[in-house]
Design brief:
alpha+beta; three-stranded antiparallel sheet; 2 helices; 3 strands
Amino acid sequence: MPKAGLTQSWIAAEAILPPEWHLMGVVRGPREVDPQIRSESWVAWARGPNGQRADGQGESPTGALDALANAMRKSGQAFKVDGG
């Protein structure tokens, strides 16, 4: 996977997060929950200021980041980067 594609997906996912939310990472499988868990899918996750968690899964790191951004949009928590 081209590094530029991963960087672009990371920046796009980070930009949609609400204030005080942080993009935590992208891993294969839900490692934050249990380091022993392995999966064929990738997971991107973010944390909110009060411990909230949002995540997205995909078949690649960029797919997981895109799924996280879509999950934030669907939840209504997405930061409005277009002023709307």
